[in-house]
């Protein structure tokens, strides 16, 4: 309610007592326009007469100049009622208690407001520090970005400077190289000029010396001529006197000789017995000298034919003392005991390795070689002409070993020569070829002549090696061999081996009755080869070659060309770890696709050497894999030409 200024009314009642006035003033001041303690609306009307009041927003408002006396009357009435009420004392006590409660509430509210203010200050401080932290982080990040940017700039600047320095250095090096090249060129030019001037000086000096010598010789000749002309009469008289003296001496010697011969001749004519003895002695002496010379030649020739070995033969099983290696004897005995071809194959000794022994070939090729061995053995048994054979294929595929086994099984001697030995002989090659075939034809068992690298001298006469202008003897040797093989022979089996059959002469190919291709081993053959050479080189410590080589008595004793060669020697076995099993060897065979038999044997020899070179002489799977990987890479590099394009 809006407060009005009080009106002045005349009153007949006495004024309020002091106590009531104080209570009223206190009620008005403390409770404003809502004082109601036990009286209801009267108390409220009395409290509404307070001069100052509070609104809901605790803002003081100005009292209007008009005053409503009714409100004051109602307040006075309420005070009277309160004063007359028996609860007046309770009102004061209650007012006091309410004052205390309000004061406590005000203090609590003030404490709450202080706590809120402190919390607000704390939040404000927290927000300020958070903002400060974010600001510091942003500043630090900005500084880091600036540093990173500066570092990038410095790095770019360093790279650019380094690149510039490198370019300058490269230019300087190039300039130095150019300068060095120019200096070297100038030096060479200067050296050439010096050498040229020196040569020119030497030439002029030599010409001057020749002129001096020529002039000196001419002067000496002219001097001698002049001297001879001046002393011509004296020289003529000296020459005539010398000629007369020598003539007289010769005539005297001739006369004495003729006189002696005449006396002897007349003596022989007078004594017929002495004459006949003299003529017979002279004739016997001439016949003895001629007969001794020719007889010695023939004897040495026959001795060489039966006992010697031609120079072209590298290895042979033939000798005159009946000595043959055990393997060859076993093969011969087996061939002798065998009947037809099927029984010969069936009766081949398993202990000796059968017909081929340790020679591992593909199955189809192995059957053909066995059939050829049986046919050759039966041909020898029935004294029929032999058939010539050509073996062709890549190097290291077992051609030589198969030829040896073919000769051993069939009971023949064998001799091995190489075509590369013919070309150096030149014109003497024809004689050596004929000596070789003459020597081969004297074998009582028959002889298998194996010519390795036959294309070296049996190439086409229309081109190739044999037609080159530097090998005229090779063409003659080819013609000699064609002459000796023109007809079927019961003494010699000719087996030629080549890597290039297309280069052989057509006449040589016409003389071949059988042609066998020795290709690279397949997977099954490689597995057998790996197992074979593993057992021989690693497990038993033997050589990789075939059994003991066939050679003569002197060769067995280590004398001459037939020295101890080939396999058959015994070494120290190597311990093998448990992880090197059949599966590992099968994996090795799979890795060695494209390898020849010789390459597989050399690979196992490398494994043997690797084990011998290690600290612990034991073959482990790691050593085996390492050597095999190295050999596979080496084989690939060899196939690629070792990096050459």
How would you describe the overall organization of this protein?
By secondary structure, this protein is mostly helical. Helix content is 62%, strand content 5%. The chain has 18 helices and 8 strands. The chain has helices at 18-31, 41-47, 69-84, 88-230, 232-270, 272-306, 326-337, 341-346, 363-381, 399-410, 429-441, 472-484, 506-510, 523-539, 553-556, 582-591, 597-613, 621-639; strands spanning 315-316, 389-392, 413-418, 447-452, 492-498, 514-517, 575-576, 618-619. α12 (472-484) links the parallel β4 and β5. α5 packs across α6 (272-306). The protein starts with 17 loop residues before the first helix and ends in a 6-residue tail after the last helix.
Give the DSSP E fraction (strand runs of 2 or more residues): 5-15%
- Count of extended strands: 8
How many whole angstroms does the radius of gyration measure?
A: 68 Å
Helical coverage, percent range? 55-70%
Please state how the strands of the largest beta sheet are arranged side by side.
Answer: 1-3-4-5-2-6
Tags for this entry?
645 residues; mainly alpha; 6-stranded mixed sheet; two-stranded parallel sheet; 18 helices; 8 strands; 62% helix; 5% strand; elongated; disordered N terminus
């Amino acid at each position: 309610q809006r407060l009005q200024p009080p009106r002045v009314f005349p009153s007949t009642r006495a004024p309020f007592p002091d106590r009531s006035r104080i209570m009223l003033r206190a009620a008005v001041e403390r409770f404003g326009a809502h004082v109601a303690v036990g009286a209801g609306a009267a108390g409220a009307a009395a409290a509404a007469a307070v001069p100052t009041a509070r609104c809901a927003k605790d803002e003081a408002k100005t009292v209007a100049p008009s005053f409503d006396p009714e409100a004051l009357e109602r307040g006075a009435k309420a005070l009277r009622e309160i004063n007359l009420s028996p609860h007046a004392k309770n009102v004061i006590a209650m007012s006091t208690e309410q004052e205390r409660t309000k004061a406590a509430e005000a203090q609590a509210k003030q404490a709450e407001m202080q706590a809120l203010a402190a919390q607000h200050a704390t939040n404000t401080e927290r927000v300020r520090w958070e903002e400060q932290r974010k600001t510091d982080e942003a500043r630090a990040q900005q500084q880091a970005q600036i540093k990173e940017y500066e570092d990038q700039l410095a790095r770019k600047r360093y790279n650019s400077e380094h690149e510039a320095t490198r370019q300058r250095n490269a230019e300087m090096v190039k300039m130095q190289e150019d300068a060095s090249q120019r200096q070297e060129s100038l030096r060479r030019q200067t050296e050439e000029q010096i050498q040229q001037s020196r040569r020119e000086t030497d030439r002029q000096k030599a010409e001057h010396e020749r002129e001096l010598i020529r002039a000196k010789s001419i002067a000496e000749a002219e001097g001698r001529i002049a001297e001879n002309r001046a002393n011509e009469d004296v020289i003529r008289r000296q020459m005539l006197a010398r000629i007369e003296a020598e003539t007289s001496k010769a005539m005297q010697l001739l006369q004495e000789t003729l006189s002696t011969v005449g006396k002897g001749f007349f003596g022989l004519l007078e004594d017929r017995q002495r004459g006949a003895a003299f003529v017979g002695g002279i004739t016997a002496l001439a016949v003895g000298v001629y007969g001794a010379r020719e007889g010695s030649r023939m004897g040495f020739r026959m001795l060489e034919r039966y006992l010697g070995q031609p120079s072209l033969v590298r290895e042979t099983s033939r000798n005159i003392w009946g000595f043959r290696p055990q393997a060859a004897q076993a093969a011969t005995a087996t061939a002798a005991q065998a009947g037809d071809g099927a029984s010969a194959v069936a009766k081949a000794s398993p202990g000796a390795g059968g017909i081929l022994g340790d020679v591992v070939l593909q199955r189809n090729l192995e059957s053909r070689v066995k059939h050829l061995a049986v046919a050759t053995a039966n041909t020898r048994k029935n004294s029929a002409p032999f058939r010539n054979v050509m073996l062709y294929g890549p190097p290291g595929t077992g051609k030589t070993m198969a030829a040896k086994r073919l000769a051993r099984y069939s009971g023949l001697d064998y001799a091995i020569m190489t075509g590369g030995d013919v070309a150096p002989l030149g014109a003497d090659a024809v004689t050596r070829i004929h000596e070789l075939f003459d020597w081969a034809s004297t074998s009582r068992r028959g002889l298998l002549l194996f010519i390795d690298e036959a294309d070296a001298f049996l190439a086409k006469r229309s081109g190739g090696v044999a037609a080159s202008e530097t090998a005229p003897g090779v063409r003659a040797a080819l013609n000699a061999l064609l002459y000796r093989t023109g007809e079927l022979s019961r003494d010699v089996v000719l087996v030629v081996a080549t890597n290039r059959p297309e280069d052989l002469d057509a006449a040589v190919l016409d003389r071949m009755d059988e042609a066998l291709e020795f290709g690279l081993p397949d997977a099954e053959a490689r597995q057998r080869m790996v197992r074979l050479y593993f057992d021989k080189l690693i497990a038993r410590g033997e050589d990789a070659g075939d059994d003991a080589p066939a050679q003569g008595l002197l060769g067995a004793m280590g004398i001459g060309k037939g020295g101890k060669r080939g396999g058959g020697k015994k070494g120290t076995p190597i311990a093998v770890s448990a992880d090197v099993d059949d599966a590992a060897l099968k994996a090795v065979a799979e890795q060695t696709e494209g390898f020849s038999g010789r390459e597989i044997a050399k690979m196992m020899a490398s494994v043997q050497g690797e084990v011998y070179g290690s600290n612990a002489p034991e073959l482990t799977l790691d050593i085996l894999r390492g050597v095999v990987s190295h050999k596979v890479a080496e084989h690939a590099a060899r196939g690629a030409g070792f990096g050459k394009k």
